[in-house]
Amino acid sequence: MLRGREVVAFVANDAAEYAFKELLGDGVIDYVITITPEMSQRAKVSNYLDVSKYNPANVYYAKKYSLKSSEDLEFFSSNIFDIGLILGWNRLIPSKIINTFTHGIIGFHGTPFGLPKGRGRSPAIWSIVLGYDTYFYHAFKVQPGIDDGPIYVTKAIRIESYDNIRTFYLKLSYVLKDMALEAMEKLISGYQGLPQVGTPIYFRKRDEKDGYIRWELGAWRVYNLVRAITHPYPGAWTWYKGEKIRIWWGVPFKEAKGAPGEVIAVFDEGFLVGCGEDSFLVVEYTGKKPEVGDYLNAKV
After folding, report:
1. Which of 21, 30, 136, 238 has its CA 20 to 30 A from that of 217?
2. Burial class (CB in 10 A: 0-12, 13-18, 19+), 267
């Protein structure tokens, strides 16, 4: 049914790279909307994807990431596109551009609760930070609001205790390909989707302060934070003698106890820190290695 349809992918980051690569290789995607590396730096896109490495035949570099420039609107108004796919684009699509698509634009959004609860920013990160083990991934029709369109497809995906944000994004990208194909078929057939019912709840945008480690909360909560914002994100962090140590990986450690923030032991591979419950073994980090008996986040 997709034969002869003009399908456009909006891609600025690599969260859905596998799905994008596969759909592009299968000839499903006809045009790619993206941004330049320079714009990605200005917009602070931490996991920017340079689509040129996949050699798409047709690429448009947006004049603004918001797509609100007159040149961007003119581009969409002067072309006839049938379906849009949001495959890594962290900005709302303006209604004037949505309305240029014959059938509409499909977005993808997950939440541990199921929409409309969990709309907004960084839902995968929030889900891991808060310790949820199930993620309801939705393909929905994009409207001018925030993740508020009717739902075409829903998949329940496990967040395993060993997942970090990178492995989880790979899971999402893997299932997204088939979700996209199914949603597009439904959209073309005239299916209107399931309306979102209930009172919306929104995740807020995360920033640097959200990476601060509170050692008193317990080893598993520290672990959830670390694995949720490891590379390509800025990483969880703690103070040590007035400087930040960024922690990229570690694991809960039940065999030792200490006061929250206390450095219990130092190894060649890392160091062990006391928590409110159990302790945490830091194995990958950036910054000074602390000494036994020192305290992280201590006032200096």
Report:
1. 136
2. exposed
